[in-house]
Amino acid sequence: MKALAARRHHRLAPVVLLLLALLVTGGVYAALDPSPAQADTASTADIETGKKLFQANCATCHGPNAEGTTEAPSLVGVGAAAVDFQVSTGRMPMQMNGPQAEAKPRQMDEEQTAALAAFVASLGAGPAIPTDEQVDGSKGDPANGMALFRTNCAMCHNAVGAGGALSEGKFAPPLFDTSERNVYQAMLTGPQSMPVFNDANITPDEKRDIIAFLDEQDQGSAGGLALGSLGPVSEGLWAWIIGIGLIIGGAVWIGAKSS
Amino acid sequence: MSENQNPQGPSRDVTRHDGHGTVAQTDRFVDPGVPEHRPRLTDTDPKAAKRNERIIAILFAVSCLGTIGSIVAYFAVRPDGTTPGVRLSTVLLGVAIAVSLFGIGFAAVHWAKTLMSNKEYVEERHSSSSSDEVRGVVQQGFKDGLEDSGIARRPVLKGAVVSALALFPLTIAVPLVSSVGGDWNVGKFRHTLWKKGTRLAYDPSGRPIKAADLTVGSVAHVIPDVPAEERESHEWITEKAKAVVLLVRMDPRDHKRDHREGASYDGIVAYSKICTHVGCPVALYEQQTHHLLCPCHQSTFDISDGSKVVFGPAKRPLPQLPITVDSEGYLVAEDDFNEPIGPSYWERLK
Question: Which of A98, A117, B23, B251 has the greatest count of CB atoms below 10 A from its CB?
Answer without folding.
Answer: A117
